[in-house]
Specification:
By secondary structure, the protein is mainly α. It is built from 8 helices and no strands.
Length: 181
């Protein structure tokens, strides 16, 4: 008689907890390693208060995918740059601990050694297609690992809050803007 999938020791609750703990330790170690080894500079990129040069390729690949149907193609580049500025401003107002966690997330996504296994994008972010990025986002959103789900949620909230706080986004969702006083 063949055992069912639920009887498999690899899929037991204990096995899943061990795997989740190992994955969490791996992500924390990779993020800390990047910070300590100098892979991620703490110096902001030119024109930004918080965002670093190492964060920009990832964000410039991610934001167009997230804004896919919300922005006309001819306005997309300006929308991405505006969203980056608004995101930078928002990050500049985070608590030091929240900023540190966000930068660790960006570090893990920026390092080739962690980017490939965690996202499925083995090359640079600049060369990733929109479909590859959508697949990565779906993979994290539907992951059995709560750490990846939290990462997806964080990315989604950061980008969407930055975009929808901009006046140019309001028309798309039918918001006329704040009343004039």
């Amino acid at each position: 008689m063949n055992p069912s999938l639920t009887d498999s020791p690899a899929l037991s609750r204990r096995g899943l907890l061990k795997f989740s703990l190992g994955a969490s330790a791996f992500l924390a170690t990779a993020g800390l390693g990047a910070s300590l080894s100098g892979c991620s500079s703490s110096t902001p990129a030119s024109g930004f208060a918080i965002l670093r040069s190492s964060d920009l390729p990832f964000l410039r690949a991610l934001i167009p995918v997230m804004l896919d149907t919300a922005v006309a193609v001819e306005k997309l580049q300006a929308a991405v740059e505006g969203t980056l500025k608004t995101l930078d401003n928002g990050l500049n107002h985070l608590s030091p601990e929240m900023l540190k966690l966000t930068q660790q997330l960006f570090d893990v996504l920026g390092m080739a050694v962690t980017r490939g296994p965690l996202t499925g994008i083995w090359g640079s972010w600049e060369n990733a297609s929109g479909d590859e990025i959508r697949h990565f986002l779906q993979r994290w959103e539907n992951s059995s690992l709560s750490l990846l789900k939290m990462g997806h949620s964080s990315l989604l909230q950061l980008v969407m809050m930055a975009w929808y706080s901009r006046a140019e986004s309001w028309g798309h969702c039918g918001y006329p803007g704040p009343p004039t006083v």
